[in-house]
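Changelog-linked ticket: 6-O-phosphono-beta-D-fructofuranose example.
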Amino acid sequence: MRWSTEQLKKTIEKIIGDRLLIIASNREPYIHVYKEGKIEYIRPIGGAVTALDPVMKVCKGTWVAHGSSSADREVVDKKNEIKVPPENPKYTLRRIWLTKDEENGYYYGYSNKALWPLCHMAYTRPSFDDIDWAYYKIVNKKFADTILDVVKDKKAFVWIQDYHLMLLGKLLKARNKNLITAHFLHIPWPNPEAFRICPQKIDLLKGLLANDLLGFHIRYHCGNFMETVKSEMEARVDAEKTSITYGGHETLIRAFPISVDFKEISESANSKEMKGLIKKIKEEFSINDDVFTMIGLDRIDYTKGIIEKIQAVDRFFEKFPEYKRKVVFIQKGGLSRIHISKYKELNDTLNNLVEEVNWKHSTEKWYPVHLVRRHMSRKEIIALYKIADACVVSPLHDGMNLVCKEYVAAKNDLSGVLILSQFTGASRELEDAIFVNPYDKEGFALAIKKAIELPDEKKSKRMKRLRSVVRENNIYKWAGKFLEELKKI
Ligand code: F6P
């Protein structure tokens, strides 16, 4: 059976029934901004939002998230709610407001200076600050208060997302025993040796173990979590059932590899407006049909391996100068978490590196790396996927990574090669990619050459297999399988 919106709808009716479905995440699925005096909405980038919006369109529940954007307050009603997507409302978005101090301590501080580097193990040292931790607790409680206000005395299922809200399950259960809560972590779970340095580890583990179901992208992360609990707490870890019982409460631990809406992307890639968009983008980057175009699309984050990617491109042109003028690399980089110094430094390093590499290899009318800073619409990104002869996804560590799956979904004509880091969750499924270790510059440069020189017939065979994997393991299957697991609770 192939999962579709219809199938998911049926599963929701069967499993959720008359319960209210609530999603809780830090990032909201739609943000409202002022542009030239008018209010516009955009969909933020990021894995969780990309994956869950199509699911919520089917589910019709309430999504509770931090209202973080300039015009967010202008468009909500008295309950701080707005129906979304704004052009075709399908579900409710309830916004939570944070003070600057709360946002700084909870989001920039504890979530992204402590938990993000702790869980990614990309050789950036986590910093644990007591004030950040205090704000993390305050904001988790704020989410709990809001969710309980949405639920009132109804039956509900709360689906918590990601590392920003690790305490939420426990806070909710303590005040409403009838709630079913599940938590999905979109980032890797590290091994016990890495996690044990965290001063707040026991509180975090207790927070997660209050949930009925705990999901990770891959089994390896489930294993790491179970080992972590074994070494830190007095809990019963059942390897057979893959569950943990702590304080008389059992939590199921399961792997659900997240994905994309294959059908929607594939159809969008076939839509009429693509022709015009492709022409426009080709003109913007001076791409003609003889040029082999490689692309990368990342938030500017040290876990994404963007520096390593540009260094590999540099090494590729050093080793194989005959490819100058015949290959370009377009890197779209969305600014992210810029109030954290590591991210600011990374952004500066990236600018300098691109400048240096372009200066070193450029010829009169050609330079190798285009760093794209401007906002690109969803349709433009799909056009970019269509143009790309190769997509280079090279994180140092990533829970899953959805860019590689989107690229595959957009390649209706079976063209294109995927170059993929072996340290992404997606590498477990997308076996027909060309794999790289982003830390190995020489190997990476050779992989680029291999991708360019792969005969067309082989490329399309690989792409066909990649597409059938993503078509099958689509976002509806991810959500459906997750919800089906609730039957066991
Ligand atoms: O992909 C992991 C993830 O944590 C998402 O859940 C999140 O939306 C994304 O990274 C982007 O991060 P941020 O929300 O901080 O911009």
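Closing comment: Example verified and attached. The longest helix spans residues 130-151. The pocket of 6-O-phosphono-beta-D-fructofuranose is lined by residues 27, 46-49, 162, 186-187, 299, 336-337 (CB under 6 Å).
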